[in-house]
Amino acid sequence: MTSTKLGKDYVLNIQHVVKKFPVGEGKVLTACNDVSLKLYRGESLAIVGESGCGKSTLAKCIMRLHDVTSGSIFYGDQDITQLKGEDLRQMRKHIQMVFQDPNTAFDPKMKIKDIICEPLYNFDMIKPSEAEEKAKEMLRLVELPEDIVDRYPANMSGGQRQRIGIARALVLNPEVLVCDEATSALDVSVQKKIVDLLLSIQKKTNLSIIFICHDLALVYQMCNRAAVMYLGNVVEVLPAGKLKEAKHPYTQALLRSVFPLREKGTHTVQTLEGEIPSPVNLPTGCPFQDRCCECMDHGCRETMAPLKKQGIQHYAACHLLDDEVQETAQS
Ligand SMILES: Nc1ncnc2c1ncn2[C@@H]1O[C@H](COP(=O)(O)OP(=O)(O)OP(=O)(O)O)[C@@H](O)[C@H]1O
């Protein structure tokens, strides 16, 4: 389990991000609904939740692969949602992404050294004569043999290719790494090695990592904090090592399907009842109301509860909960 001691210093401040997609016939799909989160320097922040809850859309807004509909994402004092042209290009040096599928991420005709050094070429930060040495340095960082610099990606394993993807993402020495399901295409044993590698690089470089992941057991072991999304909303933020103390009925339901499996003895695996509502017709009130066995007629169906403080670095958005301390929640 990872320590949850965090500095006050944050590298990203996501404020009230809304992302809507037009889906025809005048209808609008809300993929992210007023998301506010901070990413602290040197932390790994997991974004978890069922398929379609808006995790990748949020990552793409951070990477500026999508424009937000409204809201801000501050990197230092720069609102990256407003950057254009050369300013936007320069910002990409600081925030890099590792994609899910290492098998389709690279041009098969490029040598490993050119794949790794491509971001440096893009910023005119390297001469061709320096590429081999730089690529070897990055291969050492991701614990791959240096002598593969002149090879092509085709004959490498998925795990090796993902290490190359990490080397390429880190070659510009970014402050933030966004990993969108970066291990889910790999075998379980390889997943663990890639996660350990990311953690050891993080210790050396104080990198901040956003880790989008379905695997709650992995998040529990490797991340500092977890933000739980449901239907485009952040419903709970808490120390990842305290996931089992989650307060939001959705997080609790999500966890019941994972953690009992790891305990000996008798148990039944509980799954979430009902269907996730369509993000095209978001209900008024709490997004989880129709699947929540504790839903109250008054309140839950009328307004979305704000994130309320539940403990150190722990906030949950539920009408059943009170604020532990009378203060505005800052996730
Ligand atoms: N370009 C798009 N146009 C329209 N709808 C989109 C677009 N991209 C995503 N969506 C919708 O937005 C919602 C959130 O999708 P998103 O990919 O962010 O979810 P996710 O939590 O990352 O899911 P998964 O875990 O399956 O990757 C989904 O309903 C999805 O269908």
Automatic annotation (TrEMBL):
Single annotated GO MF: ATP hydrolysis activity
SUPFAM superfamilies: P-loop containing nucleoside triphosphate hydrolases
Gene3D superfamilies according to UniProt: P-loop containing nucleotide triphosphate hydrolases (3.40.50.300)
Keywords associated with the record: ATP-binding, Nucleotide-binding, Transport
Keyword Transport on entry: yes
Stored InterPro entries: AAA+_ATPase, ABC_transp_ATP-bind, ABC_transporter-like_ATP-bd, ABC_transporter-like_CS, Oligopep_ABC_C, P-loop_NTPase
Family: Belongs to the ABC transporter superfamily.
Name listed for the protein in its UniProt record: Peptide/nickel transport system ATP-binding protein
The species this protein was found in: Schwartzia succinivorans DSM 10502
